[in-house]
Amino acid sequence: MARRIGRSPFWQEAVGFLLAKYLRLVQVTSRFTTVPERLDDAVAGRTPVICAMWHGQHLMMTFAWPPAIDRMAALISRHEDAGAQAVALEHLGVTPVRGSGGPADRAYYKGGVPAMRELLRQLQSGASVALTADVPKRARVCGLGIVALAKLSGRPIVPTASVTSRRLQFDTWDRASLGLPFSRAVVVAGEAIVVPPDADDAAMEAARLAVQQGLDEVHARAYALVGAKDPGAHLRTV
Q1: What is the pLDDT of residues 89-109, one digit of tens each?
Q2: Start and end of every DUF374 domain (predicted)?
């Protein structure tokens, strides 16, 4: 019964609305530092971009886009339990695209082709997109899906991390965190990674590893700037 209630549209709308309000509270009560310091200048002229993140960061990433990114879409799991997160994104002005990552060695999404097409459509319309680079239950292992999106769209991938000094840290497979109000917040963006339209298998693998390394680096730096260590740094198993 409780599970059915949790998946009801009314419940998801209510929880999503409250989650959006909470995230706004964290945002307006926190002091932000960005790396580079002028993050807006760093992406200006390069938009739309593909914002890459690790799982566990998906709630915090709503803090990360600068004014130069005026429209944003984000890939959210098709699982019913993620419905409230999709509602929260809508309240925060982000367009949810429902789909999930497949295995790390597959360049597709569950639900899959429609989600990829919608992400491409969003990029072609001028909206930047955010998605997790690792796939469910394979924490910190970048999949080829985000690389395929960059190849097909011609848009750069920007590894990004968003961390707060005060946060709830969950003992989940991805070490998810949720920021608390009145924090020091840090947003770190790494070097953009471009995937050529004619990239072969070797080039795709090189890009995948570059995204993986870039995300490791921005997370390590973001946590260091708030005086902490990345709780997910040890999760990679392959």
Answers
A1: 999 999 999 886 544 444 444
A2: 70-139
